[in-house]
């Protein structure tokens, strides 16, 4: 076994199930391990390397920022954070943003914002603090975002969890209405992913999403859309909410937003963008100049309709090639966020086989999951799926 892996196992907490691969380098959509073996990457570090490995424009911007000013506290202003916030709000149609460093932090911000919105407007005594989340959702690993996550497997060991989260079954309008009625006057927000990622690449129905927005509008309940995985081009739109024709009060982003440097963002509309006031929220690294420099390049790309059109065209190709494989029962998801149901084989075993054969993929529940870099080429798609098809034959 590799020395690197020995060191890891001695000194890094064993919180992940890792493959025995040590990745050293990446270029484009190809990663190289310490022995020089190459892998086509259909996972992009769970959707973070949105422009692939070491994209020239992105790397130049990040390196230039490192050499110019790498960090300031948020006691000062930086040009790069101002420019990135401006680009991000313009591209998404939101008024203001709070920057953190991860998806969990973006969601923590959304949770705090929603609770304070109701606290400010209805008073402490109203106890209008419940956030409805969906069964099978995933919102992060902090205590609050784990509590928000609607999967029992995550609600273990770390008791007590944060109270104030009520789960509704995804795509069940009757359940949504029942839980809102049961908690009438106590709900401050409904939070959801439009395509549940970790939950198995499961899209919400348009009818259910419309019902959320209708019900929330009646009672001044905020809508929070967790686009940490679906956002910034992944599904073939700047925001997936645009594909559903809705405008949530709050949208959270992270993963692919800065092309592979840590970032999180909580976007808020006119109605709630001034709720978090001085000293009510903060983050030392939030809005870090290096992350913002990377983010500017990514937003620049996805703001171009031609880039988005290419994502959709390539997603079509990806999906049609997958559907041709006999063992594939169905292809789920949106754009380049793809889940594959298999007829007889086990997704986790296929993932290991793919890696041995030079293809990096992901799983979600019992599906294969693909989140390829948005810059993947037709040739790479064909080559990667040929490897997969052979293993599934
Ligand atoms: C990955 C993910 C998160 C958590 O993001 P981290 O950066 O790991 O904290 C939250 N929500 C969704 C939908 C995600 O896919």
Task: Describe this protein with a few key phrases.
single chain; about 400 residues; alpha/beta; Aspartate Aminotransferase, domain 1; Aspartate Aminotransferase, domain 2; 2 domains; seven-stranded mixed sheet; four-stranded mixed sheet; 13 helices; globular; binds pyridoxal-5'-phosphate
Account of the protein in words:
By secondary structure, the chain is of the alpha/beta class. The protein is built from 13 helices and 17 strands. Strands 4-12-11-10-7-5-6 form a 7-stranded mixed sheet, sandwiched between helices. The protein has a 4-stranded mixed sheet with strand order 1-2-3-15. It has a 4-stranded antiparallel sheet with strand order 13-14-17-16. It starts with a helix and ends with a helix. 47% of the residues are buried. The mean pLDDT is 98. Pyridoxal-5'-phosphate binds at residues 102-104, 107, 138-140, 193, 197-198, 226, 228-229, 254-255.
CATH level-4 homologous superfamily of the largest domain: Type I PLP-dependent aspartate aminotransferase-like (Major domain)
Instruction: Please compute the radius of gyration using only Cα atoms.
Output: 21 Å
Strand order of the largest sheet: 4-12-11-10-7-5-6
Estimate the global geometry from the Cα principal axes.
globular
